[in-house]
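hi! just following up on the protien thing from before. the input was this:
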Amino acid sequence: MDDAAHKKMTRGIKRHKLAGRVVFIISLIIYGVFIFTGPDIGHSAIGAFFPVVAAALCWGWRGGLIAGLCAFPVNLLASIVTGIDWQTSMLTPVGIGGHLFFILQGLIIGWLQDINLKRVNAELRLKEQIQQSAADLKRAQSTEHRLETVLEQSADGIYITENKNNTIILANRAFLEIVGLNHDELIGKEPFVFLPVVGKTYQTTLGEDVTIEIDYYEKNYLILQQLHTKGLIRNWQYYIEGPKDKLVPIEANVSNLLDQQGQCIGAISTVRDVTVHRLTEFALNQTNEFLNNVIESSGDCILISSNTGLITHVNQAGLKMLGYTLEEMLGKAAMEFFSVKEGRYETTAGDSIWLSTEEIKRVYDRISVFLEKGKISNYASYLMHKDGRLLEVEHTLTLLYDEKGDVIGSVGITRDRSMRSRMERELNRQSELLNQANRELESFAYSVSHDLRAPLRSISGFSTALEEDFASDLPDEAQGYLQRIKKASHRMSQLIDDLLNLSRVSRYEMQREKVNLSKLAVKIVERLKEQTPGRSVACTIQPDMTTTGDPHLLSILLENLIGNAWKYTDKQAAPGIFFGLADDDHRPPGHEDNATIFCVRDNGVGFDMAYADKLFSPFQRLHAEKDFPGTGIGLATVQRIAHRHGGNIWAHSTLGKGATFYFTL
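and the predicted 3d structure came back as:
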């Protein structure tokens, strides 16, 4: 019964009691009227009828009995008060019988009233019970509807079995989708309908082939016993048959279903298809295994720390680099291995270096960049080897964050630069020695230029004076000797100039820019034509050939190559020179790159390829001085310029059919 019905019933009972009291009071008033207005005791007796009936109707047989018993003394008292002779009327058989009638009347009417009230109350209680049952049924139906709604909306599969027949009595939509059955195919069936068959081979939704053996069910039977002993099974993993006869891996939580008396009447199972979870877990394991392989196969030290700065992992390269075992490093603060003080240290590369306080402070100050930005690269620092030697290293440090953006640790990749640093120091030392040697060479070149030219000038000057002043007195043979002396001094002067130019090419500070080689070649040919106006050479220059390099050095390179072509075609009837691009067919072994190939080709005397290895060595000439004058320095200069531009030069020729020089930059 709800509160509203209970309140309504209470108000009805109160109104019934109040009405009874009012009726009884009215009956007493009527009784009083009969007593004081009647001529004899008969009127009083008649008046007593009303209170007795009213009491019986109001309070049942007890009220009727009490009212009937009280009628005789009340009538007696009323007769005395009114002066009526009560003895002649009340003590007679009629009077006594009348009062007994009042008692019997009150009992009978009260008893009938009690029966009526019990019937009415029984009807009311029955009505209330019916209403209560209807309300309870409505609430139960509402609760059941809400439960079904919750079950249907659940992403997990849920099914309920009852113990009496060991059948499924309820299954939600998610579970029906997992097993691939409809409602009619599942409800009322035993759970074995979706369990795999022993001895059969299935393909799982994970792509694996699984054969169900008897030990599979033996193992799961032991797990099922937990439901009887503990009333609950957590994270139970097993297979069920799904759509297309595939096994679906699931994870289930099972609990006993109890009635109001606490008796087990069934079980409720919540199952989840863990296919995606397993595949994700497998992919994650593969990724972790791949990362671990990468970490362990790295030649650099990889050190991982927690957000408290304690080491959680070091790869094999790191252990080898520092000389520790993994157990000796795990749980230690990473900064312990960074701690160095001012002093002299022997490095693992075999050097002895001094670390000043300023250098150490400069290194440590860069840590603030890492803490501020969460990452730092090419961070030069120092580590201490277990044996006390110093490691010169280079770090790449990165903070690690979780999905909320909180720092959970850091990873550092450390490369040992001790040997590289030693090589850099040695290179700097050698560079300084080279600079010193270049300065000495420049001084020597100046001395050569100055000290050798003075005697040459004397030899040439005195030879000219002898020829001018004493030519008539000298015999022809002596004059021939003078001419040979002058030519030799002139050739010596040219050799000095060429040697100085070769040394300057090696020391020259290059200024790289875009250079149009075609325009340089045109200017060189124009100068050659001006110097030898009597010659007619067919020159072909491919237009708009550009490269990046030093314009001065590239001009020297082309002057030598085109000048040689001009010189060695002097004895040809129809001399020709070509400067342009060559295809990759002319690229020799050992020069297989993508650099552009330029070539200078002529139809001059050529040379024997058997002596091609001497072409680019200083003072090596393949033709006689009397036929083609020169010092043998030009091609050595060309090769040095090509090398300084990161390129190469090579040649191909057939004796008497010209030569082609190829070069890259």
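Residues 424-487 form one domain.
The chain has a mean pLDDT of 80.
cheers
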